[in-house]
Write a structure and sequence with these properties.
208 residues; alpha+beta; Ribonuclease Rh, Chain A; 7 strands; binds guanosine-5'-monophosphate; Ribonuclease_T2_eukaryotic; RNase_T2-like_sf; signal
C-alpha cells in the first residue's frame, strides 16, 4: 500500500472585491490589460491545515512557469486580475500565488490543474449575482454582515467567511470572500476552520 503524507487539509478559495482593494489607503492600479469587470476576482487558492495554520513556499524547485498555462492566461486576465501598483499584466501576482501557495498542493495538482481548479471554482460561484438576488449591490451602501453571509450560504450551501478592510474614511467594507474546497480542488465544502479578523456588524459594499 502506497501511503501519501497529507500535506494539507483543505483549500481556501479567496475572492476579492476590487472596489474595496482600490478605495483603501493603499489604493490600486489597473492591470495593463485594462480595468477589470465589476466582479469579484480570484485572489488565491490557498492550502491550509485544519488547525488554522498553513504551509507556504513549499517547493523552490517548481517555480511558476507561464508556458505551462498559456491557454489559461486569457481567462486569468478576466477572472484573476492584479490590482497592485505599479500596473502589471498579472504574471507577478500569479507567480506569487503559485510559488507561495500552489507549490504546497503540488502532490495533488499540477501547475495547470491548480490554476484551472481556481478558475472552475469561481465559475460555479457568481458572487455578484448571488448578492444581487438578495438585494445586495455594490453601490456604496452598508449591509448587515449576516445578510451577506446568509445570501451566499443559501446559494452555495456552505457558510462563507467575510474579510473586511477599511476605506480611506475608516468604514468597514466587504473585501474578500473565503470558501473552503476539498483537497481535490474540485468541491466546495464547509470550512474546517474559519480565518480570523473583524468586520463591523454592517459593512459597506463599495462600487467599482
Ligand atoms: P494578511 O496578513 O493580509 O491577512 O495575509 C497576507 C498573506 O498571508 C495572504 O495574502 C496569504 O498569502 C497569507 N494568508 C493569510 N491568511 C491565510 C490563511 O488563513 N491561509 C493561508 N493559506 N494563507 C493565508
Ligand atoms: P498573498 O501573499 O496575500 O497571497 O498575496 C498578496 C501579494 O500579492 C502581495 O505581495 C500583493 O502586492 C500581491 N498582489 C498583486 N496583485 C494583487 C491583488 O490584486 N490583490 C492582492 N490582495 N494582492 C495582490
Ligand atoms: P458567530 O459564530 O456567533 O456567528 O460569530 C462569532 C463572531 O465572529 C462575531 O463577533 C461575529 O461578528 C464574527 N463573525 C461571524 N462571521 C464572520 C465573518 O464572516 N467575518 C468576520 N470578519 N467576522 C465574522
Amino acid at each position: 500500500v502506497v501511503c501519501f503524507s497529507q500535506d494539507f487539509d483543505f483549500f481556501y478559495l479567496v475572492q476579492q472585491w476590487p472596489g474595496s482593494y482600490c478605495d483603501s489607503k493603499q489604493s490600486c492600479c489597473y492591470p495593463t490589460t485594462g480595468k477589470p469587470d465589476a466582479d469579484f476576482g480570484i485572489h488565491g487558492l490557498w492550502p491550509n491545515y485544519r488547525d488554522g495554520s498553513y504551509p507556504s513556499n513549499c517547493d523552490s524547485n517548481n517555480p511558476y512557469d507561464e508556458s505551462e498555462i498559456s491557454d489559461l492566461i486569457r481567462s486569468m486576465q478576466e477572472e484573476w486580475p492584479t490590482l497592485a501598483c505599479p500596473s502589471g499584466n498579472g504574471s507577478k501576482f500569479w507567480a506569487h500565488e503559485w510559488d507561495k501557495h500552489g507549490t504546497c498542493s503540488e502532490s495533488v495538482l499540477s501547475q495547470y490543474q491548480y490554476f484551472e481548479a481556481a478558475l472552475d471554482l469561481k465559475k460555479d460561484v457568481d458572487l455578484v449575482q448571488i448578492l444581487k438576488k438578495a438585494g445586495i449591490r455594490a453601490n456604496g451602501e452598508s449591509y448587515p454582515l449576516y445578510d451577506i453571509k446568509d445570501a451566499i450560504k443559501d446559494a452555495v450551501g456552505v457558510t462563507p467567511w467575510i474579510e473586511c478592510n477599511v476605506d480611506s474614511s475608516g468604514n468597514s467594507q466587504l473585501y474578500q470572500v473565503y470558501l473552503c474546497v476539498d483537497t481535490s480542488g474540485k468541491n466546495i465544502i464547509e470550512c474546517p476552520v474559519m480565518p480570523r479578523g473583524k468586520c463591523g456588524s454592517r459593512i459597506e459594499f463599495p462600487a467599482f
